[in-house]
Amino acid sequence: MSTQATENPDKALYAAHKKIYPREVTGKFSRLRVIAFISLLGIYYVMPLLRWDDRQALLFDLPARKFYLFGLTLWPQDFIYLAALLIMAGLALFFFTALFGRIWCGYACPQTVWTEAYLWMERKIEGNRSRRMKLDKAPNSAAKIRTKVVKHTVWILFSLWTGFTFVAYFTPIDELANKLLTGNLGPWETFWILFYSFATYGNAGFMREQVCLYMCPYARFQSAMFDSDTLIVAYHPERGEPRGSRRRGSDPREQGLGDCIDCNVCVQVCPTGIDIRDGLQYECIACSACIDGCDEIMDKMNYPRGLIRYTTENSTLGQPQNLLRPRIMVYAAILLILLGSLLTHMLYRIPLELDVIRDRNTLYRETREGLIENVYTLKILNMDSKSHQYILSADGIDGLKLVLDEPVIEVPAGTVHQLIARIQADEFNMENRSETITFRLQARDANHLLTSEEARFVGPGKN
Amino acid sequence: MASPLPYKIPAIQQAISVLWPSFMTAIAATGLFFSAFDPQDLVPFDLDIDISPLAAYSIGFFIFWLLASISSIGTLYFTISNCRFISKQNR
């Protein structure tokens, strides 16, 4: 137990449950963070609105079991790519943590980004730190209730928008908006919108730093990636101590004081409510708010900036900096190997796709010759960088006939070609009412460019 | 020796420590499971049910969440009860 805690037992007991009112801060790093937050929020809300060809640019189409990533269409068998991407994201997190410490936490983590967005709204509605604290302490009044109602309404609307956007990554956004406006939202879509909205509202509005302190697994193990050359936010005790208040313009050395004027700004701006002067703590999300807060005070006092700053353990101890440590090299090597194999794998992926959609209006029709005919819409996606000519064939039922308007199908590079295919078969050759047939597509000029797609062929059935 | 459980863990913390890790596990399990299996092909016990893919994925997710929660409850229960037992022995 530290002496401070024994002096203030109340503080030690209740600090964890105390609501934190982070003070607003301006400065170099705050600007950087705001840029990061706006870009990330922008990406999140704008992404589902982007179009690619005639579909949504980024769509995890679960019913169709296809992931659209701009020009790339991933099928369930391409799951390995997503898994590799996730592993690489994890490794990149290790790599950047070893180099720059917890920049992920301070600048890019969704928990931080949305918390800051909700704090910003709170600030706009309830006012600055002292006004917010006063408002919460004040007895209930019409004005207080009105302010709180406004804040929660804005929060809830923003949460609902967030939830709607989340579901729009899985259901096309135009379809979803249409369903919402006409009141035809499915039960599960409604559920997930509300679920995600509620999670956002709770995490960004109420739980905030508690998510980082109690729920985040990364916060618990990030220190394992740290070494003496990792960038950290640190207070300079040799320069700051002994801390104490003083008149402006007076010489601190005469009074036996360090540069820290004990103004507590670094504590007030902290979103996790810690005192950085107590040293590196796992609660610190390295958001650098205390750096900006302290620099502003140092400017006012005419002291040099950087009493709290980004530094490394080695640099504080006057040791040489070491950028290329074994740890960094190992993380980088694994990352590069993974990236290399992923890219190679993707290069050798067959850049051809065939999509078959059965005509839904009629199950089947009978031709003049007495054959059963099914009509299909085929979509050929040539993902290659050059144009190809393809030959289509079909099999699955004895004596099956494929009728096409064009015997050779020319598809320019990176485009979708749509055509109608008619399949005719004798119903006596059908075992069941519905048979599986296979369309095969082969490029004329490249043997490796072949693909196939199954479809249903429906007949009248045997009675 | 000091008691291994110096204070009572609040109910809300217990609930979160069960629901949260199992939630993350359920996301991973759902992703893996449905990458391998199309819900359209998985009609259990020859039941004649017709549900949308989204419903199938959602129900799958909740089943995984439930199973993982049961496991988390077990871990939490054994941790707390073993700590109590050890602290009683040491008293």
Descriptive overview:
The complex is a heterodimer of chains A (463) and B (91). Chain A has a domain at 352-458: Immunoglobulin-like (Sandwich), CATH 2.60.40. Chain A has 463 residues and is of the alpha+beta class. The longest helix of chain A has 26 residues, at 142-167. Chain A is built from 17 helices and 16 strands. In chain A, strand 3 (58-61) and strand 4 (66-69) form a beta hairpin. Chain A starts with a helix and ends in a 5-residue tail after the last strand. In chain A, strands 8, 9, 10, 12 and 14 form a 5-stranded antiparallel beta sheet that branches. Chain A has a 4-stranded antiparallel beta sheet with strand order 13-11-15-16, with no helix packed on it. Chain B has 2 helices and no strands. Chain A binds chain B through residues 62-63, 65, 76, 79, 170-171, 186-189, 191-192, 214-215, 217, and chain B through 13, 16, 20, 24, 34-36, 38, 52-55, 57-58.
**Mean pLDDT of chain B, as a whole number?**
83
Named CATH architecture of the domain at 352-458 in chain A: Sandwich
List low-confidence stretches of chain B: none
CATH superfamily of the domain at 352-458 in chain A: Immunoglobulins
What would the CATH topology of the domain at 352-458 in chain A be?
Immunoglobulin-like
Low-confidence stretches of chain A: 1-16
Separation, N- and C-terminal Cα atoms of chain B:
8 Å
Task: State the order of secondary-structure elements of chain B, H for helix, E for strand.
Answer: HH
Task: Please state the CA-atom Rg of chain B, rounded to the nearest Å.
Answer: 19 Å
What is the gist of this entry?
With 463 residues, chain A is an alpha+beta fold. In chain A, 43% of the residues lie in helices and 19% in strands.
